[in-house]
Amino acid sequence: MNVIVTGRVGIGKTTICEKVVEIARTLGYSCGGILTPKVPDKGIIVVDVQTGERKVLASIKKIYQGPHTGRYFFNPEGISFGIKAIDRGISSDILFVDEVGHLELKGEGFTKILELIRAGKVRNSVLVIRKELLSAFSAQLGSNWLIIETNIYNRNQLPKKIGTLLTSNSPAYSSKSGVSSKVSSLHQH
What we know:
Elements: E1 2-6, H1 13-26, E2 31-35, E3 38-39, E4 43-48, E5 54-59, E6 73-74, H2 76-89, E7 94-98, H3 102-105, H4 112-118, E8 125-128, H5 134-137, E9 144-149, H6 158-167, E10 184-185
Helix pairs in contact: 1-6
């Protein structure tokens, strides 16, 4: 199953993914990929889900010579580290990629994951995409996705719901939880 966790900036998408990793591991599932928590200096760290190792991914200060989006200047070493973590994580039971955004829309950053998902190389995944970027990624995500929108009312319940969806054979959907009652297709044929 492939899940997209979406929502506005700062709503808790990364925190949800961290909790889903904990739930899945408790149930005996292996997890890999990356999480990208924000740090107090308004930068972003990339964390290897398998090893816990961390690198600086981006800063709002112009201290890195890598690609940049409107707000962030990206560390080429952080991007490379994240790509390697994703590559290792593909063999995990659940792959997490937090997040794909403006950089990937330009063909940079963690774009490779989109190709791997399209090619069917990923069994179960959780992809984080900001709500305003979902439609921009629709052509690149050619498979069916369960889209889960995070909001202030459901964010505390979502880790358990997503964990259950990813680790059970017959998931129960609940419209009250913010989980779609059907698998959504982002790609229009």
